[in-house]
Amino acid sequence: MRLIRFLIALLCIAAGVLVGALNPQPVSMDFGFVTLRGTLGVSLLVALLAGAIAGGLMLAASVVVPLRAQLRRQRAQRPATPANPQPGDP
User: CA 69 from chain center: how many Å?
Assistant: First the structure.
């Protein structure tokens, strides 16, 4: 499993380098208070990374946090029981 993850990571890095190398055109992004200059390939990769991070944060906020809260409420409602009940224990 680690080998597969490593190969996928290596493939993504190679794809990023390829996108950066094939798109050397200069671009400038004006955000109103600051202007950033870079290449098109780097801009594409940064936009992709920002979108992945934003999507992950939205997923965490809309799914993971409510599920953790629900689990916490269910654990609080459940009475404490011994981990390994012995036969004959009430």
Answer: 20
